[in-house]
Amino acid sequence: MRNPLLRAWLAYLQKDASALGAADVSLVFPYRLETLPVLTWAAQQNNHWSWTYLRALNLWAFDRLPKPERLLTPLGNTPDAAAFYVSRAHLVEKAGGDPEPDLKRAETLAGTDRTVRIPLIQHYQKQARWSDALAASARARQQFPKDFNLALLHVRSRCCPSSARLRRLRLLNVTRVLPQALARNASDVRAGVWLLRWPATTPADGQTLTTQFDLGPRVARAPWRGQALRPEGG
Question: How crowded is residue 121: how many other Cβ atoms within 10 Å of its Cβ?
Fold first, then answer.
């Protein structure tokens, strides 16, 4: 039985811990209250990290923090699933810790999963560590060169003073974003790049023009907002 939740329920009802084994945690997100005692029992009966992880996810679904982090921290680097490290990184960060080691471990284990590479890039961007963000997004794009999510993240990674602005525009010009799929985000990125392309001027307060604009929602009411960036079929 591949579904670990069904297997856990069956083992729980029959009180047969030998039926548990190791759980495949891919795309498994327990969220029901009645599942919690089942997974608690499974984690107590079987020492494989996967059952503790699923129990922590179930607790997290009910916002019972910081217990999920306390359950996952002792597991160290034993788990071999990238999603585990992305989850723990989020919990560690919410608790005031440093998520970078777990995010880097997730990238190492990512394989063909592009989604678990994104949090590391976003973390570097949030910390204004642009060189690290650029390197991480470049690694991701090397494996997924046609992914427009990663292309937009790569453009954002280039949005630091030392980056070549024309290269950002060239990347945007060959990036296709489907309508309603990150279209607004793409518009904001494009608006930010064009604003940064203008020569810096000095307003009365002494700030340069480029330092007054963010790449997010503060690029407001741009004329192209809401339009897809070179949509398919357009």
Answer: 25
Answer for the pair 32, 54: CB distance below 8 angstroms, yes or no. Answer: no
| Residue 178 to residue 175: CA distance in whole angstroms | 10
Nearest to 55 by CA among 34, 36, 69: 36
Contacts of 51 (CB under 8 A, 6+ apart): 8, 20, 23, 39, 42, 43
* Cα 194 to Cα 22: distance, rounded to the nearest angstrom: 51
Q: What is the pLDDT of residues 115-125, one digit of tens each?
A: 999 999 999 99
- Among 107, 102, 77, 104, residue whose Cα is nearest residue 90: 102
Q: How many CB atoms lie within 10 A of CB 177?
A: 25
Using CA atoms, how far residue 89 sits from 67, 69, 73, 106, 150, in Å, is 14, 9, 10, 9, 20
Q: What is the pTM of this model?
A: 0.72
Cα torsion 211, 137, 197, 208 to 10°: value is 10
CB atoms inside a 10 Å sphere around CB 39: 25
> Tens of pLDDT along 28-81?
999 999 999 999 999 999 999 999 999 999 999 999 989 999 999 999 999 999
> Which residue is listed with tokens 């607790």?
59
